[in-house]
Amino acid sequence: MRIVIVGGGFAGINLAKGLAGDKNFDVTLVDKNNYNFFPPLIYQVATAFLEPSSISYPFRKLFRKNENIHFRLGEVLSVRTEDNVVVLNNGELEYDRLVFATGAESNYFGMENVRKNAIPMKTLNDAIEMRNKLLQRMEKAAICKNSRERRKYLNIVVAGGGPTGVEVSGMFAEMRNGILRKEYPELSTSVSNIYLVDGGDALLAPMSKKSQKDTYEALEKLGVIIKLNTRVVDFKDDTVYFHNGETIQSKNLIWAAGVSAKTFDGIPETSYGRGKRFSVDGYNKVANTTNIYALGDTSIMEGVDSAFMGGHPQLAQVAIQQGTLLAKNLKRELKNEALKTFKYNDKGSMAIIGKNKAVADLPKPEMHFKGFIAWIMWLFIHVMSLIGYRNRIITAYNWMIAYLSKDQSLRMIIRPDKSRKKGEVNPD
Amino acid sequence: MRIVIVGGGFAGINLAKGLAGDKNFDVTLVDKNNYNFFPPLIYQVATAFLEPSSISYPFRKLFRKNENIHFRLGEVLSVRTEDNVVVLNNGELEYDRLVFATGAESNYFGMENVRKNAIPMKTLNDAIEMRNKLLQRMEKAAICKNSRERRKYLNIVVAGGGPTGVEVSGMFAEMRNGILRKEYPELSTSVSNIYLVDGGDALLAPMSKKSQKDTYEALEKLGVIIKLNTRVVDFKDDTVYFHNGETIQSKNLIWAAGVSAKTFDGIPETSYGRGKRFSVDGYNKVANTTNIYALGDTSIMEGVDSAFMGGHPQLAQVAIQQGTLLAKNLKRELKNEALKTFKYNDKGSMAIIGKNKAVADLPKPEMHFKGFIAWIMWLFIHVMSLIGYRNRIITAYNWMIAYLSKDQSLRMIIRPDKSRKKGEVNPD
């Protein structure tokens, strides 16, 4: 049976792993990158605490011992469901079962200026772009004579009070209090503010009230200015505009405020549900299709799982469990065994705030942790989840050094040298 | 005394270090990157054995404890010698002494097609570009049905038989024999050749005959096809053209065949010597100037040093020793002490061939090493030269892993995501 998996994130990887070594399945994993990466840590790459390679791993290496798993670098353009063919930007693939595990992408809610000028936080490339841009702007601030202008380079507005927004703004606050003062003597007297804004009335909305309160207090203590019930409506002329008429002067808007699913040509409109996510049944089969599946963030399973009748949260654990279950169900199908419907096993959630504080909620038994103990839990769980022995060691080592020295050493502005061929100087 | 140093390579860094902490000097280091990097190892970044951060270090961090050393991100456009002002792309700086430590850049000898299409090997950005391009081309080869076309993606031509060319072609040969076969089953029956071409009649021209012979034999054993007395004259339509009429079909031409110095507006023509390098006296002062100096690769000191009357080789050791000496001479000048002329202390030279072979020539006593023992010497000297404790550990660790596993794990195609804003797919 030919399986084409589109997307090598948590869901896609776990499905492929589940089918690895079973000769009944000929699996092709399609991804636009040649590597899997670990999204919970991209904010650490963005703030120069971790190398991209510490949180990513090449697909070909991951599956090199599995002859029935093939990798294909490419992007899906459309699907010809009548022929069972998926059309890529560089060829076509036939399938017996097609699985979308394409995740979610940044949603700018139609705000064109935000899309063009804000810095997103979804992919590893986003993280590297952010690292480079912020470092370049600090250098520009260092030679800027006008204090009003200088503040625009230094102020940072983070939109979105979910884990990414909380983690990245906490990290910025730590950096401002440490590195900025040590290494930029030109800026020692400058004011720079870090804002965290969210349209809702709490940070980390899906977590417990206790975690929300601890997070709010910890970020305020670090000097982050938190604005709740505040929505971004525009971003132009170095100014972030909010729905209530307020503005903040800044060149740096970090966008972690929303995600949307990706739609594909050739899939019937009726297959999509809320938020353009693929509407799936209890086996993750897409509505109004016979052999197409969708997993994780890009799917929505309504009316199946008793505790989550409105659909599951878009979390790594859901994607992992759905990928694993689909592998088992595909095997059961071949053996004519009864399939199992999906039931989410909530293992809890956590977020890190700054260098050595975190919050964690566990569901069974219901418990809440905060501070250093939650940070150690976070560290342990995240390092253990990283693919590959090498990545784990390097990551643990980097964290240990960063923790001991309150410092990060990866602040190189590195990018392909576009200037060489065009004769330009120092592009931004 | 205001010192402006242009370029933070071996020469510039060593001059700045020599002046660090001396209140008589107010030093500004100007560089177009915000980091120092270690050129002898960029071929390891290019072949995905080392992370960029393992061989680079931010200037601001390097000098953060030295109040008299300032960093300025920028590029020199011209010099107004009459006003003692250097004009940057983002401002101006006044100086009492101006020091050029600008190194050398790739020289394409006027071949426009080579400049546009070949992959250079001088900067860290070059190395990352090479890593990304070659990985993308391997993926393209993997889906290419036409065996003739496929070979164009896989053949690699390395131009230049100096240390960089030798090291990079040896590394490619190791990769072909290892990773390519393991991770690209699609290519297992494909032929891919690695060519090393040089216009002269020996590899590693400045080294001993013994080292040249050992290198030649070791590379041949790895399967590298060596063509001496062969000059590239053009590179177009996926074909490398040579002066003798031969051609090789390939998309991949790595350019390590020559360097040239950079000239600056405002410096009199009469200040430049052979190869447009700044003509300097025994104190590295530029001819026909009163307060401008040049160090390392970008300078040529003729008729001074008895063993090197025609000028010194363009090597790291020369740059380091000239930077160190100039710092001392500037201090002597302030104290009205006699200055010392430069005398190069040759510590020997070495090159690595593949994973665990190297050649080394020592001058005093004259000795030649090869094989594993030379490799260990090479490793020790290079790791010890890396700036920063962290870099040393990570580098040593990566090498150990690569050596034990004959593998490299950094094969991620990572680049700023240009496609996001333009709606393009998978640009190459």
TrEMBL record, chains A, B:
Catalytic activity, reaction form: a quinone + NADH + H(+) = a quinol + NAD(+)
Domain of life where this protein originates: Bacteria
GO molecular function: oxidoreductase activity
Keyword Membrane belongs to the record: yes
Keyword Endoplasmic reticulum: no
Bilayer-crossing regions: 372-389
Gene3D superfamilies in UniProt: 3.50.50.100
E.C. number: 1.6.5.9
Occurrences of domain FAD/NAD(P)-binding (ranges): 1-323
External alternative NADH-ubiquinone oxidoreductase-like C-terminal domain boundaries: 347-404
Keywords recorded for this protein, A-Z: FAD, Flavoprotein, Membrane, NAD, Oxidoreductase, Transit peptide, Transmembrane, Transmembrane helix
Signal sequence bounds: none
Any Pfam family the entry gives: NDH2_C
Family: Belongs to the NADH dehydrogenase family.
Protein name per UniProt: NADH:ubiquinone reductase (non-electrogenic)
Lineage: Bacteria, Pseudomonadati, Bacteroidota, Flavobacteriia, Flavobacteriales
